[in-house]
Amino acid sequence: MLRIGIGTLFRFKAAGPKRLSHKMSAMAMNNKPFTVFVEGNIGSGKTTFLEHFRRFEDITLLTEPVEEWRNLKGWNLLDLMYKDTAKWAMTFQSYVSLTMLDMHRRPTPTPVKLMERSLYSARYCFVEHMMRSGTLHPAEFAVLDEWFRFIMNQIHIDADLIVYLKTTPAVVYERIKKRARSEEQCVPLSYIEELHKLHEDWLITRQHAECPAPVLVIDADLDLSQITEEYKKSEHQILRKAVDVVMRSPSKLSPKKPITTSPIQIVPQRRIL
After folding, report:
1. pTM of the full predicted structure?
2. pLDDT tens per residue, range 142-185
3. Hey, which end of the chain has fewer CB within 10 Å, N or C?
4. 116 labelled catalytic
5. Mind listing the pLDDT tens digit for each residue in 203-230?
6. Which residue, among 261, 248, 245, 230, has the nearest Cα to 44 in the 3D structure?
């Protein structure tokens, strides 16, 4: 597979592509990487989006740790949670927080890191839904919320950009049925619709939660086999921002304030009906 360095995409930089790529790689060894969260509803194409960037040698990809959720010392917590949500939601979300925190803190040898979801979406979308639907007892929600607040206050979670794969609930519901993951067969459309609204409230309208970074919105309703062109459009946005941040702020240690500006929109030329 062809591996492309970030420097090759930015020949206008005075340092030249090879020197730029080497400089970024050296800086990444001593500094925190430019971190992108890839967010979206179930079935929105997050894993496919990350796979699109595998050809870049200067990017580390961290997919959602689903296999860990499926096998914790032999227990499939994901399956247990879907089959008896009221009983297993607290246990499942506690383990999600642990595994996502591990991903956030995992050493990255490259100047750019793309992560599938984050602690933020775990709290603001999934835990929030469980609280609003009554799945979590108020005491259970309070514990999860306190854990989240403690992590945010005590452990710096980097977020430089959020890519939001915006989808229509009915479209992703059909995708979920087609990919036929055993744990997801009992997921109703209403659940997908509620998660969609929570993602919109968090990333678009900013109604109830802090958004820790600028948001790049991609209309991901296109068929997954034809959405490559939309992903290509995002390459420049992601990689240009990464180069600018790494070159301009070598330490990247200054605290970040919540972003209140409007999301950036990427709208496809064609839509599959």
Report:
1. 0.79
2. 999 999 999 999 998 989 999 999 999 999 999 888 876 766 77
3. C
4. yes
5. 999 987 889 999 989 889 987 667 777 7
6. 230
CA distance 233 to 240: 12
Pick the CATH number of 6-266 from 3.40.190.10, 3.40.50.300, 3.30.10.20, 3.60.20.30: 3.40.50.300
Tell me which residue of 85, 88, 39 sits closest to 64, measured CA to CA. 39
